[in-house]
Amino acid sequence: xxxxxxxxxLARSAMAYVxxxxxxxxxxxxxxxxxxxxxxFGGKSRIIDFALSNALNSxxxxxxxxxxxxxxxxxxxxxxxxxxFRPERNESFDILPASxxxxxxxxxxxxxxxxxxxxxxxxxxxxQFMVILAGDHIYKMDFEPMLxxxxxxxxxxxxxxxxxxxxxxxxxxxxxxxxxxxxxxxLEKPADPPGMPGDPERSLASMGIYVFETxxxxxxxxxxxxxxxxxxxFGRDVIPYLVEHGKAVAHRFSRSCVRxxxxxxxxxxxxxxVDAYWEAxxxxxxxxxxxxxxxxxxxxxxxxxxxxPAKFVHDQPGRRGAAICSLVSGGCIxxxxxxxxxxxxxxxxxxxxxxxxxxxxxPYADIGRNVRLTKVVVxxxxxIPDGLVVGEDPEADAARFRRTARGVCLITQxxxxxLSA
Length: 421
Prior knowledge:
- By secondary structure, the protein is α/β, with parallel strands linked by helices.
- It is globular, with a radius of gyration of 23 Å.
- Strands 1, 4, 5, 6, 8, 9, 10, 11 and 12 form a nine-stranded mixed beta sheet that branches. Strands 17, 18, 20, 21, 23, 25, 27, 28 and 29 form a nine-stranded mixed beta sheet that branches.
- The N terminus is likely disordered.
- The longest helix is centred in the middle third of the chain and has 12 residues.
- Strand 2 and strand 3 form a beta hairpin.
- The relative contact order is 0.12.
- The chain is built from ten helices and 29 strands.
- Keywords: ATP-binding, Carbohydrate metabolism, Glycogen biosynthesis, Glycogen metabolism, Nucleotide-binding, Nucleotidyltransferase, Transferase.
- Homotetramer.
């Protein structure tokens, strides 16, 4: 391990590499046209904006994003919202599709392969450290403490870890650690997860965040690529190998989680199911939500469309443009409709006598007159016809829309089109 030799934050000598190729199939039709990192979140953002904003706010100025599955929406968003990096300031932002640069028939075989195929680009920038990130989680984190721990411990790899109840840990990569947080075993989605030292009812789960010294990482990727039995994956191959043959250290998220004065808990969410996605968005409408999007010290950067202000019109009994405990984005027109615990993305229109409750409505959807929506996710651009009622009859909902076990209905335009077919 080469220790850092220059003064100043370690983040300035690091490159963030965001793995954003995942489909996210548990989000059902929300990922029919877009990769999971490109799915909308929080009124203005996309999921990937959180990982990218964490890197930027931490002081990292070299970022690469590896894309693969249905990447057009994601690439367009990155081009629109993240094109402010300047080479003359030693900044860079690279979008790295699976471009078959190693072999003409070679897409990214796994997360490690997605980095391996772009080693030449990484080497051209010469970063001292690599911060490998998943592009599909909602959280706020300063990577500087993790980089400092990596150097101080002389680690080969430092793995970002989340403390979770042991009963919920089997869906993660889980680490067993010693008293000094050195990882002694790494198990991918174990049926019987190991507990933590001193707290056997909680486990350390991998966040999919890894810090390496760049030259060492490249050596390991080349070694892994030469192994015919490898699945080319960090969690399945590279990290377990280093646990056994090197020094792997756990970094606890609580040490670097960014919280404003309004946030009482450590916040990290995988919004990979329709239920989790709906819940995390609707939670933002609370008076004191678990995630503070209003913290100006740690902004979530994104593409900001130029839109007129939101507008609320009509003031008659039963036909009053109103929003209670709701988030309403720019360009929305609430025309005699009533919203309650609802999140509207940019450009949504809700027409007279509509009642919308506990809804997540993606950009440019149009909600017709006399509509009643409860516990729904409405995809981008959907036209909800006049008088449609969703969320009051479970059997009718399940026959027409994607209804989850917890009673959330996902509504897409093809589903609406089938109603009149």
